[in-house]
Amino acid sequence: MPNLGPVELILWLGVVGLPVAIVLGVVMIFRRRVVKQSIPVAGSPPAVPGADFETRAMALIQNGKKIQAIKLIREETGLGLKQAKHVADQMEAGRYVPPRRAVAVPDLATRVRELTAAGRTEQAIHLIRGETGMGQDEAEHFIQAL
User: Fold this and answer.
1) Using 50, 70 and 90 to split pLDDT, how confident is the model at 67?
2) Which pLDDT score, from 0 to 100, does residue 37 have?
3) Of 89 and 44, which is predicted with more confidence?
4) Are the beta carbons of 98 and 50 closer than 8 angstroms?
5) Cα–Cα distance between 76 and 49 in angstroms, integer?
6) Which of 19, 96, 15, 115 is nearest to 57 (CA)?
7) In b/e form, how buried is each residue of 79-104, taking b as 16+ CB within 10 angstroms?
8) What CA–CA distance (Å, rounded) separates 145 from 128?
């Protein structure tokens, strides 16, 4: 590699360093926009709206107050602006399907206890192996530990 003086070094940094800095800046701006527009994480589902949510939102839409309806949808569900507008459009067109309510499923230990209490130990072992990937011996030890 040839010796670089101060002038050559500045020119080299301008030719190579400037485009790299521009690309990094564009990537950072794009990532910020994507993060702002993203839907809530999978671990925290949007809130389930109240019972009269649909009635109130539909009344607002029918009275020509679509913006207020979108605000209500965002407050009740935790959706972003784009998703809330889509829901309002679907309600206005009569194609809105309300989300299903989550059904609480007991944890694995509770279900295993119920099966073993009913004398269905083999099914309990099968359940443990299917949900955890444990082997036969590990599943049997799990049941004994309960």
Assistant:
1) very high
2) 47
3) 89
4) no
5) 5
6) 96
7) bbeebbbebbeebeeeebeeeeeeee
8) 13
